[in-house]
Amino acid sequence: MPEITIQVNAEDFEEVQRVAAAQHVDPEGYLSQVLASNLARTRFQQGAAAFIAEHAAGFADHFGIPAESRSAA
Q1: pLDDT of 21-65, one tens digit each?
Q2: Is 1 helix (H, G, I), strand (E, B) or coil?
Q3: Do the Cβ atoms of 36 and 28 come closer than 8 Å?
Q4: Looking at the domain assignment, is residue 14 inside a domain?
Q5: Position 24 in a domain
Q6: Torsion of CA 41, 43, 46, 47, to 10 degrees
Q7: Which residue intervals of 1-72 are DSSP H helices?
Q8: Phi and psi for 6 in degrees, rounded to 5?
Q9: Would you give the DSSP letter of residue 23?
Q10: What CA–CA distances, in Å, run from 21 to 5, 27, 58, 63?
Q11: What predicted TM-score, i.e. pTM, was given to this entire model?
Q12: How far apart are CA 43 and CA 64, in angstroms?
């Protein structure tokens, strides 16, 4: 499995150790979970943005534009 080495300040390092211990995982495992979660969120948001960009006009044509969007424009 590929590895990434990062440097963090002492305060962040202590926080990672504390949270990992509370979850009964090692710090590397905890950080791996955090990274995977953040990447999944980013992929979801990018997919949602792409969907909106691709289909927004069709939705507006079919359903109309909400009144609050028209007044803001």
Answers
A1: 999 999 999 999 999 999 999 999 999 999 999 999 998 999 998
A2: coil
A3: no
A4: yes
A5: yes
A6: -110
A7: 10-22, 27-63, 67-72
A8: -130, 160
A9: T
A10: 20, 8, 50, 51
A11: 0.69
A12: 29
CA distance 20 to 32: 11
Residues in the chain: 73
* Cβ-Cβ contacts under 8 Å for 12 (sequence gap 6 or more): none
Nearest one of 60, 37, 40, 58 to 48, comparing CA atoms: 40
Look at the block and give the residue holding tokens 């792409």. Answer: 50
Asked if the structure places residue 2 within a domain, the reply is: no
Domains of the chain: total: 1
Residues near 17 by beta carbon (within 8 Å), at least 6 away in sequence: 27
Q: At what angle do helices 10-22 and 27-63 cross, to 10 degrees?
A: 90
Q: What are phi and psi of 72, to 5 degrees?
A: -80, -20
